[in-house]
Amino acid sequence: MDEPPLHAAAQSYTFVSPSGDLYNWALSGFGQDLVSFGMAAAAGVVVGSLVWAIVSRSFRIEWFVNLRDALNHVVGGLLMGIGGVLAMGCTIGQGVTGISTLAVGSGLAFGSIALGAALTMKVQYYKMVYEEEATFTKALVTALVDLRLLPKGMRRLEAV
Fold this sequence. Notes:
By secondary structure, the chain is mostly helical. The chain contains six helices and no strands. The protein is globular.
């Protein structure tokens, strides 16, 4: 064999590339392609969660509140997928595997993930507390002020 099969080398624990590989494998009709560690791990998380939910009798189907809520989730999922590809790994791949090997790029990616999570929580909190008054821009600027990334004079909403 002159060329090793795709994904036959050592892999980190991530879900970004294996999710795409699983999708392509399913589209190909579950052919004879090599199932990698990452593909088995990604499928195992979904199947294991389903089995546990059924065994513990906590399985339930949840849905979106309205169309806007569904669109927010779809856009968020797309942004997470794009971010995972651009960062060359998801939160698990960068935050656990990359940080444990002291990879500089993983430190940058993990710091960005943490900052993005903190900003998102602050923005959602201000939008929930101030409802109509809190546009996305006002909530974002206020969140950046709260995280001390902008001066206090730029605050658009009162601190809660």
